[in-house]
Specification:
The structure holds three protein chains of three kinds. Chain A is an all-alpha fold. Helix content of chain A is 77%, strand content 0%. In chain A, helix 1 crosses helix 5. By secondary structure, chain B is mainly α. Classes of the chains: A mainly alpha, B mainly alpha, C alpha/beta.
């Protein structure tokens, strides 16, 4: 009898979690609705900000905000997947997975697949809504592919951070600990206006915030005016590397029940 | 004090202490609105340069949102606490006393109102420390506190209605995104006259939360704007009538089962 | 229920030496356990709540590392060879750990995939096992709607999907009706007959007595007795007679009268008991003696030694009801 390889375990876990996700409207609907609400309120409600002197963005304010919503949705897809992981610890289902999986790294990998799949569903929806609402894309095909690739890397960044917390605390009560840093990093960035139009302390903070690189790179790609693309991808890959170690050491602690 | 009033006072005190003694209930009420205020006030500072923006201090413009966000958390906390009382049977025990059944809820809501006044005072203080201008002067402070307390009571009543109907804390928590959406789709970030997107302007105009925000805001940036204050109190009253009707209806169905 | 034959390969015994597990706050749940389970044996691990049974199972199934000592399952070290141990074992733990939103079939599919079974084989195995545990009709229903007994049966089926050589059952019949319990016992016997080693924890004396080849009794994290049920009971010895007087005030006189026939033994609070040295032959004489003393008896019972008597003897407490020895 051959044992479950890491990839087999990962696929099995991904299959089960996605299956549950689409059946549970209480999970599915908020994960789809919230990005749409953000998109509607930011792109719709704040469009006047593009009239601020010095605000120039070739693709228009809708595309400007779409990039933020894409980045935010990607990070939160990773985050919410880690919530499910923590919940599985609380219900005891994780014990079944730990017992059955010969190579337990497959568990961590499986949930990463789940995060990517959830993000794909969300991003497909918000992209469709954005296009229907008249969003202009002035970037080329290759640039748009790069934008979504960046988005999927951010899914793994969000998941890696939150999964490490989930493995360590093994309870959904750690949710605020997973969420709050991500929320702060997302919003201490040029969310509403470009970096040049931020004033005061937030300009200083945003200048060093990796989220700024992600937003600027994403906006450059959608507008066809690449900006900080290499920096953004470098930051994302670097964070993924760091959070992979964070997750796997968390997994070891969960195994040792420390 | 009559026996009846004493019972209501005891329940009011219990409701207040229950929130004040639970850090994970108190923390979001204080932390989130102020963090969001700090982030938005900095991130959207450039909005004051828009032609027609009513003030040159964005924090003075935005602080009104904190009062409403705090009230939203009151909705969730009140509903969750009542749902917990229902789930543990404490509510049934109270129902067996001679206390009038509306008084059961009244005691809770008076406590919520008192907490609402306290949190409003905290927001005012923090806002003033961080540079918000309060044009209504000393006479305006009690107006803010009264309005803050009343809005907390009204939102708390909505939370009670949901709790009485569902009997489930989880269901109350699940309503959170729905209610928070009302803040996003309002004049929270820009004044209504600067909402360029047609459908968004229409939604914000119909959204009662816009008028609550504008009422608080008027005390900060205009001083005494009679129509804005009248609208805010009228909406509070109207929402209050609807909320208490919902509570009464939900109470009938809950007590019937009991 | 009939399971397919399982062909054991290699060592499928369990060896534990000096096993210790401490938890935060200085709680020592397992305190130096030594035990050995022979391949193909049904080993019953008996003890009250909080004795350390489940903690021991968690260690042996690689879900919890020990603080000290060693454990080998299927010839493999549970700490160093965890992945290989998991390949060889199946476990049905105290909490069924099922996803309420998945159906029975979907659980089987998940478990099969986790163990590396191909899709076709996994499906076939799932259908076969669900039929064996009587869940075919409920297979497409979500587990959230299953009864407690159905969940336990599904859990057992899941533990067997990959044909393990050793099976750990942690209080498998708790909450089951007598019929389901009997059916599960039958299955355990068949699995053992097929060469599967079964490590069974229970707090039910009858279960250990009826099912286990050998029993280890654990209390306070230590093994206090070990052997076959017959050996353990024989070590306590002989049957006892317990009498309850019609007038509670006569209890002392009754006890004195009985002492002529044997050593005092544990009794219920209202009665008196002695252990009979020469088997049950003295029973008639006892009745005549009590009658001649004018002692009116409300109840007279002959007890064969039970595992509870063994536990009582070793720990001073009863496993059932928690009563203290008198």
């Amino acid at each position: 009898m051959s044992a479950g390889t890491t990839m087999q375990v990962a696929r099995a876990i991904a299959w089960r979690s996605i299956h549950t996700y689409v059946r549970r409207l209480d999970l599915l609907i908020p994960s789809l609705a919230f990005p749409l609400i953000f998109f509607a309120s930011f792109a719709g409600g704040l469009s006047a900000l593009s009239d601020i002197p010095g605000f120039t963005f070739p693709a228009g304010y809708t595309a400007f905000q779409f990039v933020f919503v894409l980045c935010q949705s990607a990070l939160f897809a990773g985050l919410f997947t880690a919530f499910s992981l923590a919940f599985d610890f609380e219900t005891g289902f994780m014990r079944r997975l730990m017992l059955a999986a010969e190579n337990r790294r497959g568990i961590a990998l499986g949930y990463a697949f789940v995060a990517l799949t959830r993000a794909a569903i969300t991003l497909a929806l918000i992209t469709t809504v954005a296009l229907i609402s008249g969003m202009r894309i002035t970037g080329g095909a290759g640039e748009i592919v790069a934008l979504y690739l960046l988005g999927f890397l951010l899914v793994l960044v969000g998941y890696g951070w939150a999964a490490g917390i989930a493995f360590r605390f093994r309870t959904i009560q750690a949710g605020p600990l997973m969420q709050t840093p991500v929320f702060l990093i997302l919003f201490l960035a040029p969310v509403y206006v470009p970096l040049e139009l931020l004033e005061g302390w937030i300009h200083t903070v945003a200048s060093f915030n990796p989220s700024t690189a992600f937003l600027q790179a994403g906006r450059g790609l959608i507008a066809g005016v690449p900006h900080d693309t290499a920096l953004a991808f470098g930051c994302a890959l670097g964070l993924i590397a760091v959070f992979t170690v964070w997750t796997l050491t968390g997994l070891r602690r969960a195994e040792a029940q420390r | 004090m009559s026996g009846h009033s004493e019972q209501v006072a005891v329940l009011a005190r219990r409701a207040m202490l229950k929130t004040l003694r639970q850090p994970f209930q108190l923390f979001p009420i204080i932390f989130f609105p102020l963090v969001l205020l700090g982030v938005n006030a900095s991130g959207l500072k450039a909005a004051v340069h828009l032609p027609g923006f009513p003030t040159d201090s964005y924090i003075s413009f935005a602080i009104a949102v904190a009062f409403i966000q705090g009230a939203m958390f009151s909705l969730i906390n009140t509903g969750t606490n009542l749902a917990e009382d229902i789930e543990t049977g404490f509510f049934s025990r109270l129902s067996l006393t001679p206390m009038h059944r509306i008084s059961l809820i009244a005691g809770m809501l008076i406590g919520v109102g008192a907490t609402g006044v306290m949190q409003s005072a905290v927001y005012m203080l923090i806002g003033l420390i961080f540079g918000a201008h309060f044009d209504a002067g000393l006479a305006g402070i009690p107006v803010v506190l009264v309005l803050g307390g009343l809005v907390a009571v009204v939102f708390g009543a909505i939370g009670c209605a949901v709790a009485l109907k569902t009997g489930s804390g989880e269901a109350v928590q699940g309503m959170f995104p729905l209610f928070f959406m009302f803040i996003f789709l309002s004049s929270s970030s820009l004044p209504r006259n600067l909402l360029k997107t047609g459908w968004f302007h229409a939604v914000a105009t119909w959204n009662p939360v816009s008028y609550l925000i504008e009422g608080f805001r008027s005390l900060y940036i205009f001083g005494w704007d009679g129509p804005a204050l009248v609208r805010a109190f009228a909406v509070t009253f109207g929402l209050g009538v609807a909320a208490f009707a919902a509570v009464s209806w939900a109470m009938n169905s809950r007590m019937q089962r009991t | 229920m009939i399971f397919l034959s399982v062909v054991p390969e290699g060592d499928n015994g369990i060896t534990v030496e000096g096993l210790v597990r401490d938890f935060k706050g200085g709680v020592r749940a397992v305190d130096g356990i030594d035990l050995a389970v022979a391949p193909g044996e049904i080993y019953g691990f008996l003890g009250p709540n909080g004795a350390g049974k489940s903690t021991t199972v968690l260690i042996l199934t690689t879900l919890l590392p020990p603080t000290a000592g060693s454990a080998h399952v299927a010839g493999l070290d549970v700490v160093k060879d965890g992945p290989l141990v998991r390949r060889a074992i199946g476990a049905s733990l105290q909490e069924s750990a099922l996803d309420p939103y998945l159906t029975g079939s979907e659980h089987m599919r998940l478990q099969a995939a986790l163990h590396g079974l191909g899709r076709t084989e996994g499906q076939r195995r799932g259908v076969e096992l669900l039929e064996r545990v009587g869940l075919t009709e409920a297979a497409e229903r979500k587990v959230g709607g299953y009864s407690g007994g159905m969940k336990r049966r599904l859990d057992l089926a899941l533990a067997l999907v990959h044909r393990p050589r050793l099976l750990f059952l942690d209080e498998p019949t708790t909450g089951l009706d007598p019929q389901s319990r009997a059916a599960l016992w039958e299955e355990v016997r068949r699995l053992a007959g097929d060469g599967v080693t079964v490590f069974l924890t229970t707090q039910y004396l009858e279960e250990a007595d009826v099912l286990a080849n050998r029993v280890g009794i654990i209390d306070g994290g230590k093994i206090v007795a070990e052997g076959t049920p017959a050996e353990l009971k024989a070590a306590i010895g002989r049957p006892s007679v317990e009498a309850i007087p019609a007038d509670p005030r006569e209890r002392e006189r009754l006890a004195a009268a009985l002492e002529r026939f044997g050593e005092p033994a544990a009794a219920s609070p209202n009665g008196a008991a002695v252990r009979l040295p020469a088997g049950v032959g003295d029973l008639a004489e006892i009745v005549r003696a009590l009658d001649s003393e004018g002692l009116a008896i409300a109840d007279l019972r002959l007890h064969q030694p039970t595992l509870d008597d063994v536990f009582l003897e070793k720990t001073g407490r009863s496993l059932e009801g928690g009563g203290e020895k008198q």
